[in-house]
Amino acid sequence: MNEIANPTKLLPWAPERNGEEAPAAAAKPAPALADALRLPLRLAWRQLRAEKSRLFAAMAGVMFASVLVFMQLGFRGALFDSATNLLGAMRADIFLVHPMTDASFRPEPLPRVRAYQTLADPDVELAVPLYLAQSTWRNPETGRRRAVQLIGLDAGAGAVDFPGLAGIVEALKRPDTLAFDTRSRPEFGPIGRLFAERGSFDVQLGVRRMELVGLVEIGPSFGADGNVVMSETNFRRVVERGASNTDLVAIKLRAGADRAAVRERLRALLPGDVLVLSHEELVAHERSYWENGTPIGFIFVFGSLMGLVVGMVIVYQILFSDIASHISEYATLKAMGYSNGYLARVVMGSALILAIIGFVPGLGLSWLLYDMVGKATFLPLVMYPSRAAVVFLLIFGMCAIAGMLAVRKLRDANPADMF
Amino acid sequence: MAAPPVDLKSITFAYGAGELRRAVLRDVDLTIAPGEIVLLTGPSGSGKTTLLTLIGALRAMQDGTARVLGQELSGASEAERVRLRRRIGFIFQNHNLLGFLTARQNVAMAMELDGGLNETQRLKRAGEMLEAVGLADHAEKPPSQLSGGQRQRVAVARALAGDPGLILADEPTAALDKVSGQEVVHLLRDLAKGRGVPILLVTHDPRILDIADRIVAMEDGRIVSGAQEATVGGEAA
Ligand SMILES: Nc1ncnc2c1ncn2[C@@H]1O[C@H](COP(=O)(O)OP(=O)(O)O)[C@@H](O)[C@H]1O
Ligand SMILES: [Mg+2]
To answer: Membrane spanning segments where (chain A) (predicted)?
Structure first.
């Protein structure tokens, strides 16, 4: 080896070169905190990057888990959001419902007189009874019938404001007229297009021929694929029911009234056969029925958990085999003075990296799927930032748990066995 | 004279417990002077490796006292032992380089626990160390592209890069042919001598005994010759 004939020349800190004492090999300053985190993370990344197929498998696993959780939470949110579409579209300050009404598609009737009783309060401007029932709608093109939600109300009173309703108040006062919800599912027929082409035309509701005079926007709910709005009088022609009952009362207050105070006063005023609710309370009441009164919420939570468990097993496998196949290198690092904590940070760093590089494409793919599936199912699948954050935290936690399980394998790296 | 970097008194060590307890080291005394190169020889199973792991703070002590680089090892905590290891350069029979790092990055790993150096300094010094072991042209290669002898030279560079106060090597030439084995130990000797770093090297290999300042022979857990330091090293051999 000629090239290294005089190696000491090449060592700038060799003692005979600069006349200093030999390095004391004294304890060195500890690395800064930033380095104590950055360097293990970098080592983790270099290790992951070295084995492309393993990295790809891990990434696919995390991505799969992300997409699964996104879809499950997306469906769950969409169903609950759409469950409350009808009530959410209503615009009034206070609502009255029967205490035993669980969901708007099968309301418990309450005495209509309660609506008029509220007028005793000086801040109540209007109290409009609303009628809810289900009937069938015949698709004008195919002739097929499908269940539809009927909403009967005094459109002119203005206590409830569906988009589009204000312009057709007069038309709805004519006998046997109705307005159709254009956001209903397409199985009801291309009503919006037909109306734009021909103006008002006759449709069949239940066994009755009625005239379509306008369009509103509400959106399908859990219990109803489509909605039809008509006046109170027309509603009574379609649906047989007791004249003294209603299903929901929408109350509009005078400008400047203190809503909470009026609610309190109405609660004191009215007997126990009605609940006095704000709009938010009404929507939450309906949502809580779907969330807690049905297994739907649990199904999606369970689906999400399964995705997380599968993802965790994949990440754990990858991290574990990474450690197992590098066990002598890890032991060497321990012999060189790397602490267990440092090496644990390397493993946790790998977990964090996998969480990020799996989540990001998972987010992109889910976004795409939300769009496609949303269009196909008419479910409002929306990528809320808060949902993305929640899923990232879940994926991060999944990888962190996998990392913590894999860290235990580091104990097998014993530097005393290296010699 | 400075305190000896290694000072062992009546080291006794046994593996196993109860019925299976087997004494491996019996009453070992050994002192290594600053800058001294000591070769430890002896038949297989005589306890050489065990002794090395005790000095290297890789194993907890049982009986006896051992001062290594000023740190008392008997009763030392795990954290104290980890800290001591950072001041010792280890060379193993297998190079144990990290396969996913280049030669230069592997050498730099010996300095990443040293807060006194930044990344640029670490890589520069790693490059200089590789140059010193004749691998300047191979600094950016992964271990898989190096020969056995070259890998072991990277391991030598790594052991020395962290400014160690002591080098411990266990049969560093066992996996190498004669020529590369001699190259590696001569390099090790020259670099260590140049910096005054003492070496304790376990070997079976008669071809490399020439680098020693002193040869210590072990048999059945005891030192049978060479326990006392003959001449004090410290100058280039
Ligand atoms: N981890 C261990 N557990 C139990 N016995 C061991 C262990 N390591 C070594 N030994 C035993 O201790 C004795 C000395 O081993 P060792 O120190 O490796 O000797 P040498 O390096 O001189 O060959 C041998 O009989 C070996 O079988
Ligand atoms: Mg041995």
So the answer is: 55-75, 296-321, 342-368, 388-407
User: How far is A236 from A224, CA to CA, in rounded Å?
Assistant: 20
DSSP A167: G
Judge whether residue A372 has pLDDT over 90. yes
Chain A partners within 8 Å of B189 (Cβ): none
Per-residue pLDDT tens for B185-233? 999 999 899 989 999 999 988 888 889 999 999 999 999 988 766 544 4
Q: Which residues pair with A135 in a beta bridge?
A: A148
Give the domain ranges of chain A: 33-81+296-418, 99-273
How many other CB atoms sit within 10 Å of the CB of residue A75?
18
Do A338 and B113 count as a contact with CB atoms less than 8 A apart? yes
Q: Considering only CA atoms, which residue is closest to atom 27 of ligand 1? A: B45
Interface of A with B in 154-193 (CB under 8 A): none
Point out which residues pair with A88 in neighbouring strands.
none
**Ligand 2 center from residue A410 Cα (angstroms):** 24
ipTM: 0.89
Indicate the pairing of strand A124-138 with strand B22-32. unpaired
B34-60+84-226 CATH fold:
Rossmann fold (3.40.50)
A34 in contact with chain B, both atoms CB, cutoff 8 A: no
Judged by average pLDDT, the poorest of A217-226, B171-180, B215-224, B226-235 is B226-235
| Residues forming a β-bridge with A212 | A178, A201
Closest CA to B133 of B169, B170, B178, B185: B185
Q: Is residue A364 within 8 angstroms of chain B, CB to CB? A: no
Residue A373 phi/psi, 5° resolution? -70, -35
CB-based contact A28 B115, cutoff 8 Å: yes
Beta strands in chain B (DSSP E): 6-15, 22-32, 37-41, 63-68, 71-72, 88-91, 166-170, 199-202, 214-219, 222-225
Ligand 1 lined by B203 (C-beta under 6 Å): no
Closest residue to atom 3 of ligand 1, CA basis: B15
Tokens of A139: 């698709």
Indicate if the alpha-carbon torsion angle B55, B59, B65, B69 is positive or negative. positive
Residue A24 pLDDT greater than 90, yes or no: no
Tell me which amino acid residue B33 is.
Answer: A
Residue B159 has what pLDDT? 93
> Tell me: the pLDDT tens digits for A238-275?
888 877 899 999 999 998 889 999 999 999 999 988 99
Percentage of chain B surpassing pLDDT 90?
71
- Split at pLDDT 50, 70, 90, the class of B17 is confident
A378 torsion bin: left (phi>0), alpha (psi -120 to 50), beta (else): left
DSSP letters of A179-226? EEETTS-GGG--HHHHHHHHSSEEEEETTEEEEEEEEE-----SS-S-
Q: Which helix (H) or strand (E) holds A351?
A: helix A340-377
Cβ atoms within 10 Å, residue A206: 17
Model confidence band, residue A4 (pLDDT cutoffs 50, 70, 90) = very low
Residue A35 pLDDT level (bands cut at 50, 70, 90): confident
* Distance (Å, whole) CA B194 – CA B163: 12
Minimal Cβ distance to B86: which of A22, A24, A28: A28
**Does B43 contact ligand 1 (Cβ within 6 A)?**
no
Name the least confident of B15-19, B25-29, B128-132.
B15-19
